[in-house]
Amino acid sequence: MSKESKIVLTGDRPTGRLHLGHFVGSIKNRIKLQNEYDKSFYMIADIQGLTDNANNPQKVRDNVIEVMLDNLACGLDPEKTTMFIQSEVPEIAELTVIFLNLVTLARLKRNPTVKDEMKQKGFGEDVPAGFLCYPISQAADILFAKANLIPVGEDQLPVIEQANEIVDTFNRFYGDTFTKVKHLVGDTPRLIGIDGGVKMGKSLNNAIYLSDSFDEISKKVMSMYTDPDHIHVEDKGKVEGNVVFAYLDIFDSNKEEVSGLKEQYKKGGLGDVVIKKRLIQVLENIINPIRTKREELAENPEQVMKILEDGTKKARESAKETMAEVRKALKINYF
Ligand code: ATP
Ligand code: MG
Description:
- 55% of the residues lie in helices and 7% in strands.
- With 335 residues, the chain is mostly helical.
- The mean pLDDT is 96.
- Adenosine-5'-triphosphate (ATP) binds next to helix 1.
């Protein structure tokens, strides 16, 4: 494969079903780029999932099929994208060990994403070493495949930055081997949670899932925060900080009508239930076809696992090629 090949790679942690944040932050770009790039990889990051779930391997195991179903239902096509499982490509672990020597503890502790997530999970100094080091293993996830474009949500940008530092250090120590990677964030780089929280996350209990039923969507939207001072229909309402309008701005394709509704809401005379009902329908229109496809695919779990098995074989071929190069560069190619 020549140096100019365009290779795209993404992945998800199998820690829960996927939600609207994944859809707008990364999945839409995955679907698009699989048609435009020379090679496309999609990884189930089960080893990374275990970094903060070491005591619950069953959870990670059960969610492998769930995130596969979500991606396939959204349109990821195994004919175009090599879908594989991280733990079944041991070369990634090998590359991680080599990269560990290129990053300092101080640098790991400085990564803002890891810092945020450590706070969220209440780890403090008792953070599992594997979790603190996940940006290093993520660099190996990307570089084993020589990927150069990574569609991610905004929360992952510091991790991509760290991968590029590893590229620089590696090339400086051992000669030109890897090229820098670029990130691509979606049109919504970071979707807020239904609680108005800074990020919708599958471990944050604030998500609308791509597999949610109409009733679940309805319940979640009806519970959304609007404007606490907007009590009566005739009251003037605030649009800023109003979660329902934030979602309408992102998901409602009729921008003109949304802008009209905002005006009316600000003036008074528009009830929360009206805008919530509209949002429920907008989200149902997006999720319904995904949910239907997902249910169909879920009838054949063996077929889904076979896609992963075949994809993993392919991914390993790339991994072996890269490792041969890396071993040579590090002078650890003995026999
Ligand atoms: P966890 O809480 O277990 O970390 P997560 O919801 O953050 O789960 P990941 O599997 O860590 O999901 O992330 C997969 C991809 O989806 C990453 O590229 C991430 O940046 C992106 N992503 C996750 N949440 C959002 C969001 N709310 N908005 C935009 N992109 C997101
Ligand atoms: Mg995450």
